[in-house]
Amino acid sequence: MLLPTHVQPRSEPYAANQAGMRALLETLQAHLETSRFQGKDKHTDRAHAAGKLLARERLELLLDPDSPFLELMPLAGLGGKGFGPGGTTVGGIGLVCDRLCMISANVGTHKGGAVDHATLQKSLRLGEIAAENHLPFIALVESAGANLPEQEKIFNYGGASFRDITRRSKAGIASIAVVFGNATAGGAYVPGMSDYSIFVEEQAKVFLAGPPLVKMATGEEVDDESLGGAGMHSRVSGVADYLARDEYEALRLAREIVATLDPPQPHMVPTGPIAPPAYPAEELLGIVSPDVRQPFDAHEVIARLVDGSHFTPFKPDYGPTLVCGWAHIHGYPVGILANNGVLFSESANKGAHFIQLCNKRHIPLLFLQNITGFMVGKDYEQGGIIKHGAKLINAVSNSEVPALTVMMGASYGAGNYAMGGRAYQPRFLFSWPNSRIAVMGPEQMAGVMEIIQRQATARAGGEFNEVQAKMLRDHLIKEAEKKSDAWYATGQLWDDGVIDPRETRTYLGFCLAVVNNRPIKGAEGYGVFRM
Predict the structure, then answer these.
(1) pLDDT tens digits for range 412-423
(2) For FRET with 367, which of 134, 358, 464, 496 sits at 20 to 30 Å CA-CA?
(3) For 114-166, what is the HEC assignment?
(4) Minimal CA–CA distance to 372: which of 451, 444, 300, 286?
(5) Per-residue pLDDT tens for 180-198?
(6) How far from 404 is each of 84, 174, 424, 453, 509, CA to CA, in Å?
(7) How many CB atoms lie within 10 A of CB 477?
């Protein structure tokens, strides 16, 4: 069915929403601009003078001309004490010789490409996405290794990145390391464990211990080139498979290797003409409020995401606070679950049923989150809201078709879990800049804390301090708001990026191409459903 629309672009609420969302998008663009920092001018100028390219220049030359690139987690570490948003790695998915590949590029001109905590977590997530979607992994390497002041945060988890390279190799997922500069200490294992390694002559320096550490440990004096230079590794140690004369040849060799890999076996490739939505994506800015307390109709969002605005609903009159149904996005079939209010028992049961159907039909899921949680109260508890909610979470947990999640508003409590939150391992999760994620809303949290304090004071026979309580309440709300907004969440890597709502369809289409890169098979069983 063609979804109707009831949007009124000339209304005051629409105009207010649009103004608020545009302000948030300006903040997003400012953060993204900061994340593209590739080092101080003196460092970038020095690199160019030495005939070296910057990380994003290498990336552009590696990718097919004029092809799309899905940058992931560009704001990792935002607001933290590390190396700034994005860390010292540019990562994402793009086309190399017409093949989808995961690409990670060290920004060697920023902090020497050293790895801080956010960069490490970002790199591990890139590896996870590559493994889940069977994507060849191309590492453009130039890094000084771990950021030593953060070694206690990095060391234990850092080894997982090397482990994952070998596990991908075992699974038949190729890893290609192109080394442009330093790859020291643990970083030496990136080319060492990759299936293919390319070293740039007179630039690549790969060793477990550099000359100073060798001197300290053994007393031996040795120069960079004979210890770990590209020529030595290509002619003596055998760590390098290819010796490139310059960076351009190194990138050409990487493309040639990708071209020789076994072709992917996609689940499906869309054919035929693809109809765009019947309504403009621009209207999403007026439909959705920057204030997550203001409701909006999920059907209006779906109508601006799916092909032709055509949507086949499932149980439309039962459990209506959870919208379920089938559609296509850029030609790919998808089963959509979208919130239109709090989750009741009926909507939870409906969602569990729908997820089972999508698994039977091997159709990926799309969760559109705007959820404050499950309904609470005596009648609902006695009606079994826990066991019914558990059915939905059971279905989400054991579903085996790929899932995509977009946080387009609130994402609170167990509602986050039931709607494919980060803990439930969706293949991709993106946030809109107005989104909020927390155990509960700031006002509710502060109110609960106040009730607990009042009860404790009453039991102790004391007098409740109203002034102090208000100060504490205001402080709790302020802190909760700060630590639940989209900027804090993306800085903590709770999503794969904050995106402009108007670009959601494009992101979803790209991600559906990625998850269809390999055969899709739904779950054949689930855990026990409490009846």
Answers:
(1) 999 999 999 999
(2) 134
(3) CECHHHHHHHHHHHHHHHHHCCCEEEEEEECCECHHHHHHHHHHHHHHHHHHH
(4) 444
(5) 998 887 788 899 999 999 9
(6) 27, 25, 11, 40, 11
(7) 17
